[in-house]
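Sample intake sheet
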Amino acid sequence: KHLRPHQREGVQFLYECVMGMRHREGCGAILADEMGLGKTLQTITLIWTLIKQNPIHEAAPVAKKVLVVCPVTLIGNWRKEFRKWLGNDRIGVFVVDDKDSRITDFTRGRMYNVMIVGYEKLRSIQDDLKKGPGIDLIIMDEGHRLKTAQNKASLAVRSLDTDKKIVLTGTPMQNDLSEFHAMVDLVNPGMLSKYTTFKKEFETPIVKSRQPGASKEVVEKGEARNEELIALTSQFILRRTADVISKYLPPKTEIVLFCRPTDKQAAVYSSIIAYFFE
């Protein structure tokens, strides 16, 4: 019935970001909480807030049309979560998951406030979305999948020309800093400058400092640039770990079970041991 403290903080953080209250450049945010902390609930709470009110007295709500983009496997989960927290009557949710979907029902109709669509499908309907009054807020779930600036889904999101954008991801940095730059530049274009500048100023020094045998000067420079990058992006990136909900969980019980291998498994194991150690 109530948001937990870290979830209230998350909603406030996202609200301040999309309303331009946390930084001057851009209205985007990245919610990078670990799995299980309620990223979906926090996002739905934000959406409900924006489509129902405005900080300016008697002004129209901040958002009328919200786009949720996610992997196709998560479409059903998003629909279920909206129904769970807001019911069927309080908010209109349009799901693009069949051939009979008419995009104009969402873009021009008053019945639907939220559209849920898969990344692949977004590319084919992006032009239709531009024909309406516009999208006020874009939510990108599993946003770390948008690995490069030239990713087709990323280009589709950019083409919608929406300032308020939020990426949800449990893994903000997966492989390299170039992917991190692409994700940040999608929600807040220009915040980290062009990639060539970012690579020179941040990526190269940080990568070099983490190489075996790096000199003391190289390590110090890399650590300084890393701290600078964290300070810069902390304005619009929020990450919490499972520690924040530890007090709500029952004590952990560990049970150790010993399983006897089959004869075939034992033979394979013995052959591997013999190969490496004899």
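Comment: DSSP finds ten helices and seven strands in the chain. The longest helix spans residues 216-233.
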